[in-house]
Design brief:
The chain has a domain at 3-118: Gcn5-related N-acetyltransferase (GNAT) (Aminopeptidase). It is globular, with a radius of gyration of 15 Å. It is α+β, with helices and mostly antiparallel strands and 166 residues long. The termini are far apart. It has a seven-stranded mixed sheet with strand order 1-2-3-4-5-7-6, sandwiched between helices. Helices cover 28% and strands 36% of the residues.
Length: 166
């Protein structure tokens, strides 16, 4: 199995749309992630990211784009921080793909940007994501009770971070 991160201009938008169009993917994502996910959504995401120099990559396994990973650079007093987000189609879960993707992404961020900390906000119930981050040496930094409101419910959020090695 070959796992690669490819820039969004190198992936097939049809593959992205196909693999994003799974209702369960949005369970732990922000509400801006649509369902159903159409080719128009994929094209809009790709265009917006490329036009705004986003740090977004397709997760490509054996030549097929099965998910995305990206970072949002922060500003003002948080300028040395990058927020991490990711998803893959559930049929590819539990194969080590996301562990490797996060590893590759973090290496890229620390090599190419003057970032001190990469962090992720994870729903407490998202055990798989917590394990992915912990496997990649992210440390739990905070626990926010009832911090997110999704699907008419409050959710606790764990903040994980990985700091640049000095």
């Amino acid at each position: 199995m070959i796992i690669e991160l490819k820039t969004l201009d190198q992936i097939d938008p049809c593959q992205l749309a196909y693999h994003a169009n799974e209702k369960s993917i949005g369970t732990y994502l922000r509400n801006s992630f649509p369902y159903p996910y159409t080719l128009d959504h994929a094209m809009s995401f790709i265009t917006h990211s490329l036009e705004h120099h986003g740090i977004d990559f397709g997760i490509v396994v054996d030549g097929i784009c099965i998910g995305c990973i990206g970072g949002t650079l922060q500003n003002d007093i948080y300028v040395k921080n990058c927020e991490l987000g990711y998803w893959i189609n559930p049929q590819y879960a539990h194969r080590g793909i996301m562990k490797r993707s996060v590893q590759l992404f973090c290496q890229h961020i620390f090599q190419c940007y003057s970032i001190h900390k990469i962090y992720a906000e994870v729903f407490k119930d998202n055990i798989a994501s917590c394990k992915v981050l912990e496997w990649n040496h992210f440390q739990e930094e905070g626990y926010l009770k009832e911090h997110a409101y999704k699907n008419f419910q409050y959710h606790d959020v764990i903040i994980y971070s990985l700091r640049r090695q000095r």
